[in-house]
Amino acid sequence: MKIKIVGINYFPEVTGIAPYTTGMAEGLAAFGHEVSVVTGLPHYPEWRIYDGYASRRIYRETLNGVTIERLRHHVPEKPSPRGRILMEASFAKAVLATNFDRSSVVITVSPSLLATAGIVAAARLRKLPVGVVVQDLYGKGVVETGAMGGKSAGMVNGLEARVLRAASGVAVIHDRFLTALDNAGVDPSAATVVRNWTHVGDTNDLTPHDSVEVRRKYGWGADELVVVHAGNMGAKQGLENVVAAARLVTDELPRGRVRFVLLGDGNQRRRLQECGQGISALQFIQPLPDNEFRAVLQTADVLLVNEKPGVGDMAVPSKLTTYFMTGKPVVAATDSSSAAAGEVRAARAGVIVLPTDPHALLEAVLSVGADTAEAQRFGEAGRRFARDVLDRGSAICRYENWCHELVAATSRVVCDR
Fold this sequence. Notes:
This protein is α/β, with parallel strands linked by helices. It is 44% helix and 17% strand.
């Protein structure tokens, strides 16, 4: 098949949606399909165009068997609702100027919703099969993060529902999303579930000596309990809660007992650093290459998920797919009904606390960190879940089957006419 994939995020971005779009494209290419990708210029999570990509309007390259066309688009310095709309609109305009008439099937990734809407409409006009991969539920996201409300949120929900209904098929990353598809009026026969996977490989390759070196490099004491939150630092993560927990450590516990580490970048990082000035139990680390990233996660004692109160069904944190492979316990500060909490419970990989209580977060971290046997049980359970449920090979096979189904379904419709 000739498969065209459209998504604004792609390698060399290493967090968020990009690793899964990249993995899908490269996996399908490895299966022998002719895969081409139309994407944006790398900018996430820093919200600035990466060095080396700022001079031209279009970049074309081939990586790991995939032909990539990178299109220039607006990137807001701060991802406000207006800034995001401008970015998505400019990307959609650039995408719709490209040619995908020779494709056997077109796959578009949401978000971005505006580009997805344009691609679905254009593909249907050309009688091409078009599938939407839903990584985040856009309509729920603008409400749960507080980005929009009232009529604006209603308009976004309405647009998302129309786009998903118009597609030949929809793939979602978790069963919980199926309810949203049903509410949007998507035919159940047009929906499929393809789980995301860990995209950094098996992390069980660090020696005790390596761990000592990692601790030395980042200034972590041998007996210090290190808690790492990895990934985007945006509004959805609500990381003020972590800053508050670190302040409690500094104020109430012996120096050097617990350290909270925020690893990554995002539009809230600068503000969090300003809030955290003078807190000795808080450390920020810039995004790292895969091998160093794995080493930090595997050296940590506890891995942390933190979400803004009210964030529930809009997304399943992609960091969990990687966390579970480390063999480390997870503490999730999130609403008990959220997708993140459901995933941690399903994996039996850790504990869940309220996202509005830094005392509870600190107590959970201390409890898990102090109980070596329980921490090991959580870690082993998470790794089993990742290997049994979040397998990359199985996901790519499902995507390939889905592409075949989209082509076959569209062919049947054309023949019936």
